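Example record used in the benchmark description.
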Amino acid sequence: MEINRILQRVQPGRTVHGIAAALLPFESDGRIAVDAFQQRLQATHRAGLTNAVNMDTGYVNYLSAEERQRVLEWTREALGQGTPFVAGAYIEDVEDDVTRLYQREMDRIAEFGGTPIIFQTARLRKATAYREICRDFPAVLAFELSPVFAPNGEIFDEETFRGLMDIPEFMGMKHSSLDRLLELERLELRNAHRPEFRIYTGNDLGIDMIEYGSDYLLGLAAFAPEKFAERDRL
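Model output (structure tokens):
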């Protein structure tokens, strides 16, 4: 891909949707630091960013089902009714039917008014399976996560990615490949196939991808949300 062609894709004046993945803090005695967690959620919301909880930044793979439930409760309590947030649906460590497991997690998130984001699993490899899992949910996000970050991650081929965009419940996807050219290709396909579909960059090596049409979902944004909010209009 030629440099001049890449530079022509810069989109000045675009409003960026920023999502901050909240770190789940702990006290020195091992208890979850609930007050600090809720204060960080509130600060992120005040800065104009959307909160995401039960994420890889919050070490969702180390949390029990009961702890994930409590995080949802604390999040709704901190943000108040009606404030949107995103929450991870993680099933990698549980044995059962994949569709049933995901829908159980997603139902729990929806009960608290959150938008589920589907963590990939080694048992889920087809767009048709995603279609069944997401059926009748008002809005769902998904991960495209390089195995560099997690062994259960997967970078989709183009056909699968296109098929996922065809699922009406899917509103966007976090793309974490650390590959700027691949992300640019995702954006090009998105623009041609479903322009309203959001690509949330997780590219720690290229946060300027927001200049080319990506939005973002980043753990770093939760540490200083006001700094990220300043960038949310290019």
